[in-house]
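Much of our argument rests on the idea that a fold can be written as discrete symbols. The amino acid sequence and the backbone structure tokens for this protein are reproduced below:

___
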Amino acid sequence: SRGKEMEDANEVQRKITMKLLAVAQSQFIFLELGFALFSTAVAMGVALYRYTGGYLSAGAVVAVVLISLEFSRTLLLIGEFFFAGALGREVAAKVKEFLDEKPPVRQLADTPTEELPSSVDIQFQNVTFTYPGADIPAVKNMDLTLNPGETVALIGRSGSGKTTVVNLLLRTLDPQDGEIFYGGIAEQKLTLEQIRSKIALVPQDPFLFYGTIEENLRIAKQDATEEDLMKALRGAELFEFVQSTPDGLKTKVGDQGMALSGGQAQRLAIARAILKDAPIVILDEPTSQIDVETEAALHRALSRLTEGKTVLLIAHRLSTIEQADRIVVMESGSVVESGTRDELLTQGGIYAQMVQTKRRSEGQTIAAAE
């Protein structure tokens, strides 16, 4: 049971903590009681010996003893930093373990055995994936096709499997059953670099590295010229902001983009995707946490990014979903509806219910305002 697991984990944590405390107490006795007192006693003995010989005055003796305390103070810092060092070693061991892990995806070779065409379609054929420890598949017997130049909106309730589909598409997860084809080529015959070079991702919460705007842009294209960077910023509606800052492209974005607003961080992620110029674009709730004014600028930036591209759009806002060429509805890891907006409204299924719920909500809001 969960209670038993928590109890066992707490017991392990208690034993580790008590072991650290035991070591800390032993070093306290050795350093603070042993070395500190020993060094002070030696200094006092030497000072008194020199005093009796007439080489030191009484004031000098007191000064030597006090100075010996300052000498030992530096070594006593070893004890204060003991726990910090122990924590650092534990974290370093976990980081090393993480870096040594092999990607949990299959790949036939480290070098390409097939070449992807410039225009890539994607096909999920009977794909099933279950997370370790789970009983119910996150994605079950899924069939889905993304045609070149098509915008597909993938919608569904939380936990329906949308994020898992994105991870399978990016090859951060590997299906247990079924296959994914890129341009008609099975995923196992392609390298991760081949697949990911064809995909640009704009996530809901874009990750920005500590550094400058230029450094965060060059993640997408290392050899980009300054003109390329500025063109991407213009396309993402971020050019004026960069021009208005004293440091321009050298402006620091802060830790995880904290120096930027939410809209600016999203537009920087869009600029990065524009610079990459991949034929497939994944938009994961790009406007979910943005105000109305910023959303208008984001929509203009997104329209430039997705022009002529194959787009997989994950969204909840109906205004965003309705821009798609095709809408795919997921439920419990499976595709339950697929078609154009008008086709799904005619079917009267989940999507039609979402639209009706929104209309009722809007009607109630208008009535309340009146």
In short: The chain has 13 helices and ten strands.
